[in-house]
Amino acid sequence: MLAPAQAGAGDKKSLVARRMFYDLMELPPETRRALLWELSPAEARHVYAAAYEVAGTSYHLWVDDPVGFVEQVLGAVVWSVPRRFMTALTTHKQVAVPSCFGSSKTFSCGQMVLWASLVHPAGTNTVVTLAPLWRQVARQLWPEVRAAHTRAGLPGTIDLTQFKMPDRNGLDTVVAYGIAASPHQEAAVQGIHAANLLLVVEEAGGIAHTIGNNLAGLMVGEGARMIAIGNPPTDEVGTWFEKLCADPEVETIPIPAWETPNLTGEDFGVCQSCPGGGHSPARHMVDRAWIERTIRVHGRKSNYVRAKVDARFPTGTANATIPADWVEAAARQEEPDGGIRLCDLGLPEETAEWKVHERAWVRLGVDVAADGGDELAIARIVGDLVTVEHVSSGPENGNSVHVAGVILKEILRAEALARRLGTKAKVRVKIDGIGWGWGPAGQLEKWRQEGVHGAEIVTVIVSEGTNRRPDEESMRPYRKRDEMWLAGRSLVRPDSDGACRVRLRLDELTLAQLSAPKLSTNSNGFSVVESKPDMKKRGLSSPDRAESVLLAPYEPAPSRNRVRLLA
Question: 163: helix, coil or strand?
Fold first, then answer.
């Protein structure tokens, strides 16, 4: 790893070094990079000093060579596709990189922030990183920037999302900083100017048109550049990022999973991020097992696979009841500052580190395997914390007493948790009563009357009408099953700051099931969620786990003896 040292203006000038610097800068980046490796330590010091005196920074040697900067200054390794888009940024004003999941895109962006911050003198350049949410800025990209800066022993200081360098007068100057660019914060991306400007747009699939249009206004002058990188959205079509990637004036370099190192066998050195290293960076990237599992869970033709595997934008043919992006947002919700961890409550079966609050209402949702098939799934919601506590399949689930016993175990756990939290409300258990669910529900009600447990047992007949007057705000559900799914949709929908009303702590299959059913409208204008049989025709599994999750917070209107459907 090369380590250029800043040289003072009063240092002895070396005509030979200056001549060498000028000669090096005349060479193509690859040739210059090779010659720099061959310099002796003494020669290198003189050349760096000459670069500082002539160009204002020793790192100007890599002004048109981000790959060389990453390798020779940061001591990192870069695989083939990032090498392409890093290089493209030196010859194109705008570069777009639609990427699959797990392609090391955030790591690569962190390296580029340091490159663009250092190859120009402090005070003449600015690097601005943007993402839709603050936590994406502060907790995803900038930790990579800080880590690379520390490993390479670079000058300047970096705090949470800001990089400062001393200028020629010794005054600290901000050369790079990060901002959140939510749809309602247009002012955040206005008034950004510098002789040399690089915009690094992370999670570009979530950038709103209002923000993207303002970014285009910043691309003024020869020194302005932008790279936009991220997963394509899984549900929304016609996004700013999609239109940017389709712009013929933008250099677009996709990263499908099939071109990543674990799929191609590309060897690109040793990991620099993990203590001790000793393994390939590809260990942290997408692999064949993940791809195959994702295709199996979501379906090969799903928009989720198009986005996360193929790095392609969604088609407008599928209207998801709950968009996958929303499900992911609810799954990424951070733990609250207050509350207590489940594992600290002193209950033997509560071992998770997720937080709950005192007096939180504890509710269960149960999807009973139809005729013993599919899966028996039991979900739990404690305040805003949603988990799946039991999943099983097999012939024993055809025995209603056995199923009732499994549910009873989760009820007793829930009641113990409620007592420890000081919750006054009774545990409430919602059971899908269609078909096989009647038996376990009846048995549990009998046990309640006998004092075996004290929970409220609510049988939900999801094929019934909602027994509520429909309104536009609720999207006019047709039956209780539709109402249950639309109620879940409202719980996971993120607000403008990315906050959701629930924290989903669920396995990958459950998360996939939540975003699987399509939403349509019947002839009378009511919203209808795709049925389980129709989903199976599309090659998808029955969303038993998802429906247990949705049942847990769902509070249906009381059933009538005879319910007339709305149409």
Answer: strand
**146: which 2 tokens?**
């800080």
Distances (CA, A) of 447 to 379, 492, 550: 20, 34, 25
Instruction: Record the tokens describing residue 419, joined without a space.
Output: 């007592």
Q: Of 188-192, 337-341, 513-517, 541-545, which gets the smallest average pLDDT? A: 188-192
Angle separating helix axes 80-88 and 105-118, nearest 10 degrees:
40
**How do the domains of the chain map onto residue ranges?**
1-61, 63-284, 324-551
Distance CA 546, CA 42 (A): 65
Q: How far is CA 273 from CA 142, 236, 277, 539, in A?
A: 14, 34, 7, 40
Structure tokens at 73: 């200054």
- Angstrom distance (rounded) from CA 71 to CA 48: 17
> Which pairing describes strands 456-460 and 224-230: parallel, antiparallel, or unpaired?
unpaired
Q: Which fold has domain 63-284?
A: Rossmann fold (3.40.50)
**Quick one: which of 465, 501, 467 has its CA closest to 482?**
465
The model carries a pTM of: 0.76
**Residue-wise pLDDT tens digits, 115-146:** 999 999 999 999 999 999 888 999 999 999 99
Residue 452 to residue 415: CA distance in whole angstroms: 12
Nearest to 333 by CA among 511, 503, 134: 503
**What are the residues facing 166 on neighbouring strands?**
172
Query: Residues 231, 75: contact at Cβ < 8 Å?
Result: no
Instruction: Find tokens 């888009």 and name the residue.
Output: 85
Q: Checking DSSP bridges between strand 125-131 and strand 196-201, what pairing results, if any?
A: parallel
* Residue 11: half-sphere exposure toward Cβ, Cα within 13 Å: 20
- The CA distance from 57 to 69, in Å, is 13
Domain 324-551 has CATH 3.30.420.240: yes
Q: How many CB atoms lie within 10 A of CB 502?
A: 19
Could you tell me the CA-to-CA distances from 394 to 126, 198, 376, 391, 397 in Å, in that order?
61, 57, 9, 11, 6
The string of DSSP codes covering 65-108 is -HHHHHHHTS-----HHHHHHHHHTTT-SEEEEEB-TTSSHHHH
- Burial of 339 per CB tally in 10 Å (0-12, 13-18, 19+): middle
